[in-house]
Amino acid sequence: MENQFENTIQKYSSMENVKGILVTDNNGLCLGSKGNIKSNSAAYVSSLINRATEISLDSSKPIISIDTDNTNFLISSENDITVALAKQKMNN
């Protein structure tokens, strides 16, 4: 499992405009973080994706998008882990 979240952190942190990444298990335990996402938000991130899964209309896994003035947060579940990305918003 350790390699799985390390690979996930490496994969997403190298993407353009990514300011932070947080990886949690299904119980909200922080498995790793990098950048400007606080590790103490792991339980909240896990809870959000679990609730979104409960209200999903089909069996597909939800992706949560939270937008602020400067940042897009994307939260999704991948295998047995939840990944939250903080991306710098592109200026138009």
TrEMBL record:
GO terms for biological process: cellular response to amino acid stimulus; negative regulation of apoptotic process; positive regulation of TORC1 signaling. It is found in: Cytoplasm; Lysosome. GO terms for cellular component: Ragulator complex. Pfam families: LAMTOR5. One of its GO terms (molecular function) is guanyl-nucleotide exchange factor activity. It comes from the Eukaryota. Keywords: Cytoplasm, Lysosome. Coiled coil: none annotated. Signal peptide: none annotated. Belongs to the LAMTOR5 family. This is Late endosomal/lysosomal adaptor and MAPK and MTOR activator 5. It comes from Anaeromyces robustus.
